[in-house]
């Protein structure tokens, strides 16, 4: 039986509300405002980065929160909730689901994906979403006990396809190969693409930049218009 929280995401839109320090919308509680707007739109969940934003959103929004903490370590390329330290902080901030790097790459400080998943399963009731970049990684993450998969990292590991569009093929193949829900995430630019992901087998769809990164949204218009100059 699937957890109620997973069932509540089925067929819906999860809005990723994230800004890095270099972006104009970083800080000042602005991600909370995007999350409130997403809730009002009928979205079924929020994806948020940093304990601070998760806490802030938790106070104002009732939707399930997929929490992560992007942090770089010098000994690994893994940066999405890379170690047990970030996992604990994300859970303490109120995330219902912890999103973490679920690739097969070496992790910082000698930890393994199994260590991090075990930490969550042993010490909390939070669910685990593995952000993966290939079918093989998705299958391995399911075997380790992850509750959900997301195609987040396709295009962001050296060995996955580098493309402008979402990785529809990964969504399709992975959905056939695993029993746990597969979320489509990464470079989804339109409602039509989101719908296509669901038709290809995605359990739900995560959209970030096309909704919550104004600079990225404006640039698409600027670039398109420039072609007519
Ligand atoms: C690769 C990576 O670090 N992705 C991050 C993961 O949380 C976010 O920067 C993305 O915005 C998110 O995955 C949603 O994707 P998009 O913004 O393309 O709709």
From TrEMBL:
It catalyses: an N-acyl-D-glucosamine 6-phosphate = an N-acyl-D-mannosamine 6-phosphate. Its EC number is 5.1.3.9. It is an enzyme of class 5 (isomerase). InterPro entries: Aldolase_TIM, NanE, RibuloseP-bd_barrel. The keyword Isomerase applies. Gene3D superfamilies: Aldolase class I (3.20.20.70). CDD domains: NanE. One of its GO terms (molecular function) is N-acylglucosamine-6-phosphate 2-epimerase activity. Pathway: Amino-sugar metabolism; N-acetylneuraminate degradation; D-fructose 6-phosphate from N-acetylneuraminate: step 3/5. Pfam families: NanE. Keywords: Carbohydrate metabolism, Isomerase. SUPFAM superfamilies: Ribulose-phoshate binding barrel. Converts N-acetylmannosamine-6-phosphate (ManNAc-6-P) to N-acetylglucosamine-6-phosphate (GlcNAc-6-P). Belongs to the NanE family. NCBIfam families: PRK01130.1. This is Putative N-acetylmannosamine-6-phosphate 2-epimerase. It comes from Paenibacillus chungangensis. The gene is nanE.
């Amino acid at each position: 039986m699937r957890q109620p929280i997973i069932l509540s995401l089925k067929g819906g839109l999860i809005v990723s509300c994230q800004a890095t320090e270099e972006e104009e919308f970083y800080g000042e509680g602005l991600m909370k405002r995007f999350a409130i707007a997403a809730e009002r739109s009928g979205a079924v969940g929020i994806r948020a980065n940093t304990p601070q934003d998760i806490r802030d959103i938790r106070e104002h929004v009732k939707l399930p929160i997929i929490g992560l903490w992007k942090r770089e370590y010098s000994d690994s390329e893994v940066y999405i909730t890379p170690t047990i330290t970030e996992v604990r902080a994300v859970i303490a901030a109120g995330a219902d689901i912890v999103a973490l790097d679920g690739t097969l790459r070496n992790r910082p400080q000698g930890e393994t994906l199994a260590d991090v998943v075990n930490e969550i399963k042993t010490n909390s009731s939070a669910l685990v979403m593995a952000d993966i970049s290939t079918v093989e990684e998705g299958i391995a993450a399911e075997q380790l006990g992850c509750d959900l998969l997301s195609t987040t990292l396709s295009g962001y590991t050296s060995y996955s396809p580098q493309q402008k569009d979402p990785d529809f093929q990964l969504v399709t193949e992975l959905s056939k190969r695993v029993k746990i829900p597969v979320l489509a995430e990464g470079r989804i630019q339109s409602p039509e693409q989101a719908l296509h992901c669901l038709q290809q087998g995605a359990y739900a769809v995560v959209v970030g930049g096309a909704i919550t990164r104004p600079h990225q949204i404006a640039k698409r218009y600027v670039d398109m218009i420039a072609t007519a100059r």
